[in-house]
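name: query_chain
kind: protein
chains: 1
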Amino acid sequence: PIKSPILIIPPKPVTIEDFLIEHLRKASIDVFPRIVQIEEDKLKLMTEAAEIKQLIAEFKLAISREKEQATYAKRRNERTEEQEHTRRINEYQLLMQMEQQKAQQVKTDIDNQNNTNLASERHQFLSNARELAFSLRSKADVTKDIKRKNKLGSRFAGEKEEVSELLLDRLLKRISDPQWDAIVRVATRTAVEESKKLAQRLEIAEAVGQLAGKMTGTTSATLLSDGYETTKEMLSNVIIGQTTRQNTNLIGSIGNETKQA
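structure:
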């Protein structure tokens, strides 16, 4: 029989938003991880609460069945069987009470997480997000020979700096993406490959410079300088890349969201 080919789902393309997440995880080392941790803790608590609720429902059903069996045994004068069902009823009721206490504690923990004051953390998080968004937009503009000055201080001086919940939700959802590791691997591998290519080109430029220096008397330092400038330009193109140019609108939308916040 012909085996069906294994379908390999390629990772989502690396976007500016991915780099935004990585930057914020590094720049907000004491801020963003705490926000993420609180969200993860809330998710675990809510999952635990759902499991406890399901368990309590099963206990109620089991108790109801045992009561029916005990009533049926009593009618048949089966004293021993009736006592066994009564014992199970008491055991299930005790276990259900314990689960109900756990459910109340989990509910209290969830309320505490919801009431956690993250005003300063969210303020710093959004500040870092704004700064990165505008710096990336500036890099995109540089490719068009348009230089922008960073005016974050005066631009947002008189505005309320409340974090955009939409931005937070998007970043948290992106991090929880099961393909996140694959996305990072692709981005890292691409960067390493481009670095190797640039290193090879630099070696070629150096060899050509040394050869030309011997043949014409021109100092290899001058040629190496030219080669370095060429390599630096290529590196700049790699860093900025087509991705940055394609995602200028995305950065603009992030900037608008943070500005509106």
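note: Residues 38-116 form one domain.
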